[in-house]
Amino acid sequence: MELTGYIRSDGSVGFRNLVAVVPLTGCAQRIVTRIADQVDGATAFFQPLGCDLVGPDQDRLGLMLYRLATNPNVGAAMFVTLGCAAANEHELDKRVAETRRPTKLLNIQKTGGTIASVQAGVAAAEGLAAQLKKQQRQPVPVSSIILGTKCGASDKTSYEVCNPAVGVVSDRLVELGASVVLSEDCELYMGTEDLAARAVDDQTDRRIREMAQNLKKRATARGYDIEANYADLEAGRKMSLDRIAKAGTKPIQKVVRLGELVDTPGLVVLDGPNSDLACITSLAAAGGNLLIFTTGIGTLIASPVAPTIKVCANQKTYERMCENIDILVTRDDLGSADRILGRILAYANGEPTKGEIADQGEMFIPLEGIIF
To answer: Are 287 and 262 in contact, with CB atoms under 8 Å apart?
Structure first.
């Protein structure tokens, strides 16, 4: 299995070499997208946060933006801000530069407004992109893959066909030394005991149970009873297991929390949110350099930094949304796992996903009290 990528100073491997254009305040979102749209190899972080956050939420913003801007697929970063933005306190340009990535900081108030900032930003981003073009892809092992798994807009074909096929691929990648990441706290909740039984040690067992306990506390505080959502608790457990299936059957090596990096091979659980945008953002912030997203009735979203591979087993959905879905699997396709693995390697080697071709790139940084 031949694989190439970009080796970063910390030893991590990126399968893209992107210039991240990052707003440090919602006021800069439009400017950021206009800059990225004009520069080949640039990707915009479309996010509205930066001001009006205090304490843990402001800390969360700084940490998550740092993790996303230093995702293995990011080779350089430009931060666009106003001089009054609260997020300036994180000094992200300086911190990211410490990882040996080229960086730029653009202050709109100093540059002179919208049009002037777009022009200056395009010139700066083109300079960063030119530096990255000097870097070459190098042979890397399959163990370089950190695959984040996600399911959304699901239907019965997702549970009966898609997730099991992706689960076989997840197991194979783990056997080859790669990392596979399972997240979505709400989706995992009813399968807590099953997940805990797969923990490799007591600490991992404890963290799995803490993830469920903390989720229930947050839900209860907002007047939501998770168990009441299921008429039959055993049926709820089966639903969780149907979702968990996409990450395979291997032992769980570790549980990481939001803002922590996946730093171990094997199957890892990310204690992160369930909603689609927040989940893919959290997986990328954890170091995911590829994402695989199963869907039944169809979804558009993709990470701006991690190639997001859409897999579907619903023929009608695929026919309607083939411009967004990469792989169609069928119930009778005995070689589906081999084909999915082959496509993962092709995308890792630089072939663009449908999301990249369509220029999809969404994100949402989870804040306490906003989502579970």
So the answer is: yes
- Alpha helices per DSSP H over 159-265: 163-175, 185-188, 192-196, 202-221, 233-244
d(CA 359, CA 372): 29
Domain region containing 113: 18-132
Interval 48-84: pLDDT, tens: 999 989 999 999 999 999 999 999 999 999 999 999 9
CA–CA gap between residue 89 and residue 220 (Å, rounded): 34
**Side by side, which strands form the sheet with 74-81?**
42-44, 18-23, 74-81, 103-107
Do the domain assignments include residue 243? yes
Q: What is the mean pLDDT of the chain?
A: 96
> 28, 22, 19, 20: which is closest to 85 by C-alpha?
28
Q: Which residue, of 113, 132, 151, is where some domain finishes? A: 132
The owner of tokens 């940490």 is 63
Q: Are 22 and 79 in contact (CB under 8 A)?
A: yes
What does DSSP say about strands 74-81 and 252-257: parallel, antiparallel, or unpaired?
Answer: unpaired
* Domain assignment present for 250: yes
What's the CA gap between 268 and 273, in Å, rounded?
Answer: 15
Q: How many whole angstroms separate alpha carbon 342 and alpha carbon 344?
A: 5
Same domain, 30 and 70: yes
